[in-house]
Amino acid sequence: MSAMRARQQLDPSRRSTESCEFEAELRRRIVGQEEAVQALVDIYQVFRAGLHSSGRPVGNLLFLGPTGSGKTHIVEAMGEILFGDLHAVIKVDCAEFQHSHEIAKLIGSPPGYLGHRETHPLITQETLEQHTLKDGTKLSLLLFDEIEKASDALWQLLLGILDKATLTLGDNRRVDLSQTIIFMTSNLGGVDISALMSGGMGFVQPVDKPADKVDAKVEHTATEAARRKFSPEFMNRIDKVVVFHPLRPAQLEQVLDIELDQVQRRVLDTAHGQFVFRLTTAARQFLLREGTDIKYGARHLKRAIERHIVYPLANLLSTGQIEVGDVLSIDYDDAAERLTFARTGENVVVQMAPPATLFGEQAVTARGGRAVEAPATAVARDKQTTAAAPPAAPSPAASSRRRHDS
Which of 240, 183, 181 is nearest to 59 (CA)? Predict the structure, then answer.
């Protein structure tokens, strides 16, 4: 029996259930960045298996690419998935450390310096250990945002952190970062990448270029910019360099779905009233036109949604034109060149689908009336309209209500 087991063919590509759930949740939140998702899943799988290198951080990753491509967002998404908190990531804004003396804000001032007791270090052992996984395993996410803006003093500090996973604070306390994944983001090469995607000064536009060739040029541009900026010692301590690609129109449509999902959840979580809204195809196309800009990526689309959806909804709520349980239809008026808002239903019960497979189920119920099953995004849908994601499986409670109503 042992001889048969010894000859058994194994499958090294097979992943654990927990890792598969983590990957599925990342893909639900992140659009168009396959390499970045795969890098996080691989590091997480190695960590959960206990095979990460001892005496070093769990992983050192450098994220390159233009603004608005999701470099910071993917780290925040990982924190939300693993810890249930969007702010579980310890974020160091490197723009605040452009001068050498400002390093005291990160590690604290040495004893004897004026005001050293009032200078609390940003990175401490207590801060790193304030979030744990569901089984109690310690894991920290540390993000150095826009690393190219930091002073040489911070880069020198990072050399020790990335290599030995230790940090000595101003009062000589030592911080252990061996249970930490360290992320660094940079916009180096972003201007050149935007020019590449828009066709630059030539006549060849992105639609005329094969996607694989454009992606290869983007990666080469970003990587070369990083090598020119950072020293070989710094680059040699990085486990993985991931280049984020500018989002294309089809991917921006998926981002629109995700952002509309977030707006709907904000509506259902608000104390002023819970209602469901739906967007027609014309309204979606309007938002995509207003929110598409190669230079600014997904952030430009978020601003368009805030300006054309969130602000009007806030006015409707504040003036009492929307009540709990209403169904709102958002359309686009070609003549007026603006979105229109109309109430098409009222007194509905909204069943909210769970936001993630790793979290518990959430439900938001409106006052009285009939039951309406909302999709995963809680955005209503019918034959003439489209919403942000396919409908989620109905909950047992909602199914029971529908049988009773029929």
Answer: 181
In this structure, are residues 117 and 394 in contact, taking their beta carbons and an 8 Å threshold? no
pTM: 0.76
- Amino acid identity, position 383: K
Q: What domains can be seen in the chain, in order of their start residue?
A: 17-246 (3.40.50.300), 250-405 (1.10.8.60)
The answer to whether the beta carbons of residues 197 and 294 sit under 8 Å apart is yes
Half-sphere exposure of residue 259: CA atoms within 13 angstroms, side-chain side? 26
Query: Contact at 8 Å (CB) between 352 and 330?
Result: no
Give the angle subtended at the CA of 204 by the CAs of 198 and 209, to the nearest 5°.
Answer: 85
CB 369 within 8 A of CB 322: no
Residue 357 φ/ψ, nearest 5 degrees: -70, -20
Across 244-387, the runs of DSSP E, i.e. the strands, are 276-280, 327-333, 338-345, 348-351, 370-373, 385-386
d(CA 151, CA 98): 5
Taking the C-alpha atoms of 373, 376, 380 and 386 in order, what is their torsion angle to the nearest 10 degrees? -140
Read off the tokens for 22.
């983590």
Full DSSP string of 150-214? S-HHHHHHHHHHHHH-EEE-TTS-EEE-TTEEEEEEE-TTHHHHHHHHHTTTSS--GGGS-HHHH
List average pLDDT for each run of 10 residues in the chain, which is 406 residues long: 68 88 92 91 93 91 88 94 90 90 79 58 91 91 94 90 91 92 90 67 46 78 90 93 86 89 85 80 93 76 92 90 87 92 69 41 37 41 38 39 41
Token pair listed for 30: 């992140």
d(CA 64, CA 19): 25
- Interatomic CA distance for residues 200 and 214, integer angstroms: 13
Which of 216, 218, 215, 210 shows the shortest CA–CA distance to 192?
218
Decide: 297 and 32 in contact? Cβ < 8 Å: no
Report helix angle 190-198 to 211-229, nearest 10. Answer: 160
**Cβ(78)–Cβ(141) below 8 Å:** yes
**Rounded Cα gap, residues 278 and 390, in angstroms:** 13
Distance of CA 215 to the CA centre of its chain: 21
Return the H-helix or E-strand segment holding 396: helix 396-405
